[in-house]
Automatic annotation (TrEMBL):
Keywords: Endonuclease, Hydrolase, Nuclease, tRNA processing
NCBIfam families recorded: RNA_lig_partner
PANTHER family assigned: RNA-FREE RIBONUCLEASE P, UPF0278 PROTEIN TK1425
Record-level GO BP terms: tRNA processing
Species, as recorded: Candidatus Roizmanbacteria bacterium GW2011_GWA2_35_8
InterPro entries: RNA_free_RNase_P
Protein name: RNA ligase partner protein
Single Gene Ontology MF annotation: hydrolase activity
Length: 207
């Protein structure tokens, strides 16, 4: 029996190209139908860690909708048993190196944007707080975007992401996600992965 660990973004990132619709509800309903059949025929199991379920539910104002309940009734909601997963020391070396490099890049970006704001205000006479906020707003926005790209994109930046990897290891299952950071780190851990574009075709082959 094949096992699949599902990430939140499958249902909301239309670039996942699942081919089940263009709306989240259509995707959830379509995938639930396939999961139900495969589960009934004991062909596959589908898992979501509790933190991923919470993340999934956070996208809905009404969390009691039938299609949401139907999905959660069919997937196995399970936390990884981290006491049973052994991690190689190289993982920690890479993590520390990655954090250090990203911190350094973030610091450089901060310095560059401070210099940029200094040049922006050089020789200017600011008449009001509002005028200052308007001027500095663009600098802050640019800094936030650059800082986020330097420190978070492609990084394992949440316990929920780590749960996906740990559960994939524990269950020897395929991780299905569009998050490049999770995939990159998952490969380093040696997990199995299923490209989102091939996921539906693969499970249809099991039906």
């Amino acid at each position: 029996m094949e096992k699949f660990i599902l990430d939140t973004n499958l249902f909301f990132n239309m670039d996942a190209n699942l081919g089940l619709g263009r709306k989240t509800e259509e995707i959830v309903v379509g995938l639930t139908e396939k999961i139900t059949i495969l589960k009934k025929n004991k062909k596959a199991q589908f898992f979501m860690p509790p933190k991923i379920v919470s993340e999934f539910l956070s996208f809905f104002e009404n969390k009691e909708q039938d299609f949401i309940k139907s999905l959660l009734l069919q997937v196995t909601i399970k936390s990884p048993d981290i006491s049973k997963v052994n991690l190689p020391s190289r993982v920690f070396y890479r993590l520390i190196e990655d954090v250090r490099e990203r911190s350094h890049r973030g610091l450089n970006i901060g310095e560059e944007e401070i210099e940029s704001s200094g040049r922006l205000f050089q020789g200017l006479k600011i008449e009001s707080t509002k005028e200052f906020q308007i001027k500095i707003g663009g600098v802050i926005k640019k800094f936030r975007e650059r800082y986020r790209n330097a420190t978070r994109v492609g990084f394992l930046d949440s316990v929920a992401d780590l749960d996906l990897i740990m559960l994939s290891l524990e269950q020897d299952g395929y991780l299905v996600t569009t998050d490049e950071g999770v995939l990159s780190w998952g490969r380093y851990f040696g997990i199995k992965e299923m490209p989102s574009q091939l996921f539906i075709k693969h499970i249809q082959g099991l039906m």
